[in-house]
Amino acid sequence: MSEEHRPAIRTDIPHSARIWNYWMGGKDNYEVDRIAGDAGIAVDPEITTMAAQSRQFLIRAVRFVAAEKGIRQFLDIGSGLPTMQNTHQVAQGVAPESKIVYVDNDPLVLSHARALLADTTDQGVTVYLDSDYHRPELIVTDARHVLDFTRPVAVMFMGVLGHTHSYEEMQRIVETVVEATPAGSYLVLWDGTDDSRAYVTLCRNYTDTGGVPYIPRPHSEIRAVFGGLELVEPGVVPIDRWRPDGPRDETPRPVSAYGGVGRKP
User: Fold this and answer.
1) Containing domain of residue 221, as a range?
2) What does 143-162 look like in DSSP terms, one character per residue?
3) What CATH number does residue 31 fall under?
4) Of 91, 17, 11, which is closest to residue 54 (Cα–Cα)?
5) How many domains are there within the chain?
6) This prediction's pTM
């Protein structure tokens, strides 16, 4: 998309990617986002834990498919604002030749792309595509210019598909992209769930601010998106309990977000 046709950055309406950035301790947000973020914390104090754990899940999942399964191509759809230990940094830290395609259509995200891409390795490739995940066919077409779809690809949707209007739409988007990849590819996905009343209220309040609605979904719907794939142990579980690096503490309540990794047979 050309600069003259790119949507303007709205600073009068809170934006989920910027609020998420705020909850993770980032600086790429505006006052309206911080106000909405603080309101969210007041409703659901565990949201900052979810934000932190979402990044830890990304780190562990990318490291797993890169180091243990030999994946060298990553398609991170709805990547959001860069913070720390982004997909390309984790993957290229394992294998410097890794290729990463980020996909987003948020003007603020795209404005940060140049600085983020400066951190890629000389051996690898890291690019951004300006595209909307509601058009998965176009994403696949554009990604083919960078990634070799005759070789395995890790397809990633990290906490973004709650913005789809229905489960059926979420499933269509995921299936369209995964079907374009060969056997041996992986799906890495997490999304917010509806098992916490506080989190559901937080999302409803965010919608009332004028932001793009985010719909927490039942665990069963997130699991169903992995239909036809071979789930990696421990399956689709709360993201803080997917292959934790240290001893698992069973005392704290798991965060209201489920995720997993599945292999395409």
Assistant:
1) 3-244+251-263
2) HTTTS-TTS--EEEEES-GG
3) 3.40.50.150
4) 17
5) 1
6) 0.91
